[in-house]
Specification:
- The structure is a single chain.
- The chain folds into 2 domains: 227 residues, Spore Coat Polysaccharide Biosynthesis Protein SpsA, Chain A; 66 residues.
- It has 315 residues and is α/β, with parallel strands linked by helices.
- It is built from 11 helices and 7 strands.
- The protein starts with a strand and ends in a 5-residue tail after the last helix.
- Bound molecules: uridine-5'-diphosphate and magnesium ion (MG).
- InterPro entries: Glyco_trans_2-like, Glycosyltransferase_2, Nucleotide-diphossugar_trans.
- This is Undecaprenyl-phosphate 4-deoxy-4-formamido-L-arabinose transferase.
């Protein structure tokens, strides 16, 4: 298989009017670099002429590849399909709506050359239509920094550059694409960021609004769990379970003591129930943790080929 320097993975849902200009701008930006390139456009269930426009690009330029999804599967799946097809040793992702400026491509490459595995764009000055979109995004980014301790300002920026090894270790679904820098950083890839220009949308409309913020919090919990506890889920459930069980146990012991010394626990029923409940919940949580550990154990055993996962080099 022929080797390629740069892949451009571009998910597009109803972006017919931006595609031609985007293609030209990228070509212009990479021309002086003298690198071999490929484009991978993913049509994520567009209902406009996106696919037709892509087809005509493909006919003009064989470096343009298209993946048409059967319907709208969302940005994570679109990106993942693009990654699966990409062959470049460095892979870029860009939004198709021209909000990202391809002029910045060389700056990303310089940062990669400094030794970073993943470089993420930071839209320091945003040009989004409303506060209802920017504010949830700011809050979510802050929470992400606090909970994951990964120092990235704008995890969700669509403009990123990856070394091949990073995308080999991503497994995107749902809304996880927004946390790619966290997922990569927790696998000990070196993650950096550069500020990028953010242009207002010229054609089409945004596919996301404020509701993204609410779902984002749930996704953040998932990410924290997947990254910090994936390899030791028993600790997560077990800690909660032990706290719950022992609180219940102490209450139970106290009630028993009352019964033995005073002979009655008449007005102590609510406390009794609370104690029982805490012990039952505790046992449930601990069992869940043990089951999760069993699954992890078998999975680890099945993964004969762990090379890509943890080894950077072996001589
Ligand atoms: N997109 C996609 N599938 C979707 C939603 C969006 O492929 O279900 C693409 C969209 O075409 C664009 C990128 O993801 O290229 C970012 O979307 P958008 O510009 O609407 O998000 P915003 O910049 O407003 O956050
Ligand atoms: Mg956009």
């Amino acid at each position: 298989m022929e080797k390629i320097d740069l892949s451009f993975v571009i998910p597009a849902k109803n972006e017919q009017d931006s595609l031609e200009a985007l293609y030209q701008e990228i070509l212009q930006a990479v021309e002086p670099l003298k690198k071999s390139i490929e484009f991978i456009f993913i049509d994520d269930g567009s209902t406009d002429d996106t696919y037709k426009r892509l087809e005509s690009l493909h006919q003009r330029d064989t470096r343009v590849k298209i993946i048409k999804l059967r319907g709208n599967f969302g940005k994570s799946i679109a990106l993942q399909e693009g990654f699966n097809k990409a062959r470049g040793s460095i892979v870029f992702t860009l939004d198709a709506d021209l909000q990202d400026n391809p002029k910045e491509i060389p700056a990303f490459l310089r940062k990669i050359d400094e030794g970073f595995d993943l470089v993420s764009g930071w839209k320091k000055e945003r040009h989004d239509p409303s506060l209802s979109k920017v504010l949830p995004s700011r809050i979510l980014n802050l929470l992400t920094r606090l909970l994951t301790r990964v120092r990235i300002h704008d995890t969700n920026c669509g403009f990123k550059a990856y070394r091949r090894e990073v995308i080999n270790n991503l497994n995107l679904y749902g809304e996880l694409y927004r946390f790619i820098p966290v997922l990569a950083s927790k696998q000990n890839f070196k993650v950096g960021e550069i500020t990028v220009e953010h242009r207002p949308r010229k054609y089409g409309e945004t596919k996301f609004g404020w509701e993204r913020g609410v779902k984002g919090i749930l996704d953040l919990l998932t990410v924290v769990f997947l990254t910090d506890y994936m390899r030791r889920p028993g600790h997560f459930f077990g800690t909660l379970g032990l706290i719950s069980f022992f609180s219940g146990f102490i209450i139970g012991a106290y009630i028993t003591y009352l019964r033995l010394t005073t002979g009655t626990i008449q007005d102590r029923q609510p406390l009794l129930f609370l104690g029982m409940l805490l012990m039952i919940i505790g046992i449930q949580l601990i069992s869940t943790g043990l089951l999760a550990e069993m699954i992890t154990y078998w999975r680890q055993k099945d993964m004969k080929n762990t090379t890509d996962q943890v080894i950077a080099k072996s001589l």
